[in-house]
Amino acid sequence: MNKLFLFLLLAFSSSLTFAQKADSTANKPAKTRNIDGSLMNPLKTIQENISTSPNFSTLTSIILADTTNTFNGNPITVFAPDNKAFGKLPAGTLDTLLLPTHKSDLLLLIKYHAVAGKITSKDIEKQIKAGNGQAIFTTLSGRTLTAKINENRNIVLTDENGGQSVVSRLDIQQSNGVLFVVTQVLLPKFTQ
């Protein structure tokens, strides 16, 4: 009887230790990540991290024009184009958007790169699988993006105009959401 009791006691304590280890790894805080030479601190907001990165200086200048503070609000997921992505826009596009007469288009562009809530790459993949190969996300602008997985197992976002952008960096945790880096600027259909 004593042997059985001792055996059960050891088995219980082993499973308790295993459960504590599993629980402690699940609750570990996200680590600061180096994204192309810029540190992204998970304790800072998306706007704070982007504004300290030279690779996101164009996006930072656009964010500063956003008086609604899209990137500092409730939990959001942002598909952030870096400077290389902005450099791929047709000549004059960005200059036009930065004109005071195009402020509403600029705000539409900013909000088109953000989705409400914290969404991870695993969440996106699950939604793509559930959607038979594609997932549709409604952005903060009220417009939609379509996500698919390409032949190289990359997440590819398609904007309203058919433009495609590959997600090049995944799941960069921020205090107010999740950041993904994309290779192209996602363009909504602008109304004239």
Protein traits:
single chain, 192 residues, FAS1 domain, seven-stranded mixed β-sheet, two-stranded antiparallel sheet, 36% helix, 24% strand, globular
Describe this structure in words.
With 192 residues, this protein is an alpha+beta fold. The protein has a single domain (32-182), classed as FAS1 domain. Helices cover 36% and strands 24% of the residues. It is built from 7 helices and 9 strands. It has helices at 2-26, 46-51, 57-64, 83-87, 93-97, 103-112, 121-130, and strands at 33-35, 38-40, 76-81, 114-116, 135-138, 144-149, 155-158, 164-174, 177-182. Strands 4-3-9-8-7-6-5 form a 7-stranded mixed beta sheet. A hairpin with a 2-residue loop joins β8 and β9 (177-182). The longest helix has 25 residues, at 2-26. The N and C termini lie far apart (84 Å). The relative contact order is 0.15. The model is unreliable at 4-26 (pLDDT under 50).
| Secondary-structure element series | HEEHHEHHHEHEEEEE
Task: Identify the CATH class.
Answer: Mainly Beta
Query: Taking strands numbered 1, 2, ... along the chain, how are they ordered across the largest sheet?
Result: 4-3-9-8-7-6-5
Query: What's the CATH superfamily, by name?
Result: FAS1 domain
Task: Write down the overall geometry.
Answer: globular
Helix run count: 7
Helix content: 25-40%
Distance between the termini: 84 Å
Broad structural category:
alpha+beta
Unreliable runs: 4-26
CATH topology: FAS1 domain
Would you spell out the secondary-structure blueprint of this structure?
Elements: H1 2-26, E1 33-35, E2 38-40, H2 46-51, H3 57-64, E3 76-81, H4 83-87, H5 93-97, H6 103-112, E4 114-116, H7 121-130, E5 135-138, E6 144-149, E7 155-158, E8 164-174, E9 177-182
Parallel strand pairs: 3-9
Antiparallel strand pairs: 1-2, 3-4, 5-6, 6-7, 7-8, 8-9
